[in-house]
Amino acid sequence: MNEAQEQIAAGLEQVFWSRGFAEPSVPELRAGVGVSMRTLYRHFPSREAMILGALEHRHRRYLKYVHEGVSQPGLEAAEQLFDKLGGWMRMTNGKECFFRQALAANPDSTDIEATVKRHKGELVKFFGELSGQQEFASTLYLLHEGVTACYAEMGEQAVEDAKTLVRQMFKTSNARKYS
User: Fold this and answer.
1) What is d(CA 156, CA 48) in angstroms, rounded to the nearest whole number?
2) What is the mean pLDDT of residues 147-174?
3) Nearest one of 135, 123, 143 to 58, comparing CA atoms
4) Residues near 157 by Cβ (< 8 Å), separated by ≥ 6?
5) Which of 39, 93, 144, 145 has CA atoms 20 to 30 A from the CA of 169?
6) Cα dist. 85→9, 73, 117, 144 in Å?
7) Minimal CA–CA distance to 104: which of 26, 95, 122, 127?
8) What is the Cα–Cα distance from 147 to 83, expressed in whole angstroms?
9) pLDDT at 128
10) What pTM, to 2 d.p., does this model score?
11) For the residues of 56-99, what is the DSSP string, one character each?
12) For residues 41 and 33, is the Cβ–Cβ distance under 8 A?
């Protein structure tokens, strides 16, 4: 994305985050972004393209956030992931996953589905790298998605429970290595 698209996508992300994906009309999206209709359509020629732009912006923003300050691969980095996720959930008021919301509101869009799958796939790959053990990738993903889904009800307890399970996973793995 060029700079103008990035700024518009950031605004679209905020409008969709606050209003949902089904409700805001294109004129409401335009007003929320603060550009002319012509400029909006030049960069994002359809409502679906606007959603995809917002998802791409959120994808890059989230990956940058979870990568920042990550220590060397291993237990500490895996625990840090959940601390970062807790911080993200506090910043987003515990709302459920932006990507799953987009897909739920647009179940017939193959492009949105592909974007969601790519985002989630990149998370799984990162979690394997983060832990230093590729076999932990899917378990870390399940914990990540679980915390995201239940944070509104459980708050920080979800984060702490995930970290407890991560520690247990590493402990069990280490015990198998040395037995």
Assistant:
1) 34
2) 95
3) 123
4) none
5) 93
6) 22, 17, 19, 8
7) 95
8) 11
9) 95
10) 0.91
11) HHHHHHHHHHHHTT--STTHHHHHHHHHHHHHHHHHTTTPPPHH
12) no
Cβ neighbourhood burial of 168 (10 Å; 0-12, 13-18, 19+): exposed
Lookup: tokens for 68: 């920042």
Q: Which two tokens stand for residue 22?
A: 């089904």
Length of the chain: 179
Look up residue 31 and give its amino acid.
A
Q: What confidence tier does 139 reach under pLDDT thresholds 50, 70, 90?
A: very high
Query: How far apart are the two ends of the chain, measured CA to CA in Å?
Result: 51
Show Cβ contacts of residue 48 under 8 Å, excluding neighbours closer than 6 positions: 106, 109, 111, 112
What does the chain look like in DSSP terms, one character per residue?
--HHHHHHHHHHHHHHHHH-SSS--HHHHHHHHTS-HHHHHHHS-SHHHHHHHHHHHHHHHHHHHHHTT--STTHHHHHHHHHHHHHHHHHTTTPPPHHHHHHHH-TT-HHHHHHHHHHHHHHHHHHHHHHT-GGGHHHHHHHHHHHHHHHHHHTHHHHHHHHHHHHHHHHHHHHHHT-
